[in-house]
Design brief:
globular
Length: 178
Amino acid sequence: MSIADVIPQYLNYPVTAVKQKILSRQTWLLFSWLMLGWYLFQYAAGVPEFWLFALQQDMVYKQITGFILFSYLLSQWRIVLRYRKSRVSAGERLKQHMQQGSIAPLLLYIHSIEMGVAYQFFLSSFFLLHCALGLVHRNVISSGISILRNVWLVFHIVFASLVMVLSLYHIYITYLYS
């Protein structure tokens, strides 16, 4: 075997392995749990990222990231609700929903590192609880307990609905007092 045979094998294997590792479900789950934990840690410790906090005080930044976050929420609902006209199987839509759902804590963090007060605190709390519920999906499904799956699904839908309603209220209040 010559060096010309070894180099392509050496170059292709790590790239493919790294690509598969990056795209793996476990990587996304770990990333989501870390972001969720970091968000809660910063809130509890009261130590914000000062450069991000300063950036988030700009109204244009808040509007742009808020629009991105709300568009993201709408796209998550769209993935789930377009079951009749979709050419993609339910399993593929669920996989897409879970992969995209894993970036939710990051998007909230980019939009606001504070939990807020009054309804904003509830919006942030429900959003983070909804993220945590989504992250335990695989464990609930693999448990084999049907009542647990049903309860999980009800809470997932309720928190998703609460997040949407409170987001719409947040948008209304934000533009009413701007």
